[in-house]
C-alpha cells in the first residue's frame, strides 16, 4: 500500500518506533470456532472490521470504517469510527473541568487520535498501551491498557484499565458504529433495526446538548426502548431531539439495573438475523443515530462511490454519566487518582434470530 509522506510523518510524531507500533498495522483476532473475527489497528486502539455470521451462516462485517485505515488520521470529517475514546468521552460543559480545557470526546487529539503501543498479542486477544502525558490540558499523567479479545460463541470483550498520577477526571467509551445488515439485501439504514435498552431515564440536555442536571422519564415518549422497538418506529417524533434541525437520537440512557449482570442494550435486524447483546460495568449508554455522518463506504459495504449517510448506522457507547464532573447534584464521582484506578468493561455477545 502506498503511504503518503504526510501519514508517515504523522506516524513518527505519534510515536511509531517499531513495526508493531505502526499506527495502521493490522491485528486480526479469530475465535477458534470461527464464530467471530475482529481486526484492530494501534491508532486509537481502533476496531476496523468485525465479522459475524448471519442466520444463513454467511459472515458480514457489521461495523463501519475505511478500506484505507490511515484515513482514521487524515479524514477531516473525523466520524470517530470504533476507537477507545478518552481521557473524558462525550461532552464537557464549556470545554472545562477544573484545570483542563477540552472539546468533545477528550479533545482535538484525544485517545482516539493517538498511537497506542501493542504490549501483547495472541490469536484471540491484543492489548494496547497509551500514556497520556497531561494531554489536552488534563491534570496528571494517565497510563491506560486496552484489551480486545474474542471467544467461542460469537463473543467480543473489551476492557480498559487506567491509572493516574494525580486527581483527574476519567470517563471512557468504545465508539462503535453498528449496521447489522452490513448494507446488504437493499438495506441502507438502521431505522428497521430493533433496539432494547434497560433504562427508564434519559439525561436531559440543553440547546448545546449538555446535561441540565435533570432526567427525562421515557414513559410515553420516543425514548422508551424498555420493550423492543424499531429505531424508526416513532421517527416523526424525533425531529430536533438531537439538536436543531437534527432528526433521530444522540442521548444517554441511564440503566435501571446493573448492566454487568444483565444485558443493558440489545440490537438486532430482522433482515440479517444478527443480534448483539451488550453487557457492561458502565451506568449509561449513549445512542447516536448518525445524523451528521457523511463518509465513503468500505468495499464490503458497497464501496467509496456510496456514502455512509445519515441514519446509516447507530453508535452505541457504554459510558458514565456525561459531564457529571460539572453536575455535582448527581453525586457521581468521576475523579480518579493513584489510590483509585479506573476500569471499563463491555462484552458484545452475537447470536442469530430465525
What does this structure look like?
InterPro entries: Aldose_1/G6P_1-epimerase (IPR008183), Gal_mutarotase_sf_dom (IPR011013), Galactose_mutarotase-like (IPR047215), GH-type_carb-bd (IPR014718). Pfam families: Aldose_epim. Belongs to the aldose epimerase family. This is Galactose mutarotase-like protein. It comes from Pleurotus ostreatus (Oyster mushroom). The chain is mainly beta and 354 residues long. The protein has a single domain, classed as Beta-galactosidase, Chain A, domain 5 (Distorted Sandwich), CATH 2.70.98.10. It is built from two helices and 27 strands. The strands form seven sheets. It has a nine-stranded antiparallel β-sheet with strand order 8-9-10-11-27-21-20-15-18, with no helix packed on it. It is globular and about 50 Å long. The model is unreliable at 1-20 and 95-107 (pLDDT under 50).
Helix content bin: under 10%
**Which topology does CATH recognise?**
Beta-galactosidase, Chain A, domain 5
* Oligomer description: single chain
* Order of strands, widest sheet: 8-9-10-11-27-21-20-15-18
Strand and helix order = HEEEEHEEEEEEEEEEEEEEEEEEEEEEE
Give the number of DSSP strands: 27
Largest β sheet strand count, sense and barrel closure: 9 strands, antiparallel
Low-confidence segments, given as residue ranges, are 1-20, 95-107
